[in-house]
Amino acid sequence: xxxxxxxxxxxxxxxxxxxxxxxxxxxxxxxxxxxxxxxxxxxxxxxxxxxxxxxxxxxxxxxxxxxxxxxxxxxxxxxxxxxxxxxxxxxxxxxxxxxxxxxxxxxxxxxxxxxxxxxxxxxxxxxxxxxxxxxxxxxxxxxxxxxxxxxxxxxxxxxxxxxxxxxxxxxxxxxxxxxxxxxxxxxxxxxxxxxxxxxxxxxxxxxx
Length: 208
Hints:
The chain has helices at 12-21, 68-72, 119-133, 138-143, 146-154, 178-189, 193-205; strands at 8-9, 24-30, 40-46, 48-50, 57-63, 76-88, 101-112, 114-116, 156-162, 165-171.
């Protein structure tokens, strides 16, 4: 990912927080398991981000019918976390000779995908996803008939990815003068949900 230094974020805590906030991610890698295959495929999945290891650990599951898991197993995988994004109008800038741009947050995590195939581990993985997204459903999941739960578990393949390399790109008007940053922050604060999230990150990470 092209990331000029002034918009690069490497703070581990911030990256873990952002991956958890924008945890519906994209797994990218070959669809053909042949070594050196150039054909790539993308799978969109909700992930659990664990605060373990040097950069964190990602967990999730594929539908077993999705062939992508077979080609990604034990291979380097790119996981993209797309964050909020928004158009930035040059009308917000003090300098009339300005052009439009786009502010956004994106995190790229790399690591080798390890399969999780036994029922007990897959069940624990699902419980983690439920706790993160719908904790009120946890008891209902536990009370489902064992046969039904086993059938559901048989239809998925779990995985974990210890992150070995990570890139954080937070493009939030760092290169603009303070007067412009303040104008962008004010406009975003009163805007769409994505713009409001960007405004919150601006307030945290840069002077505006």
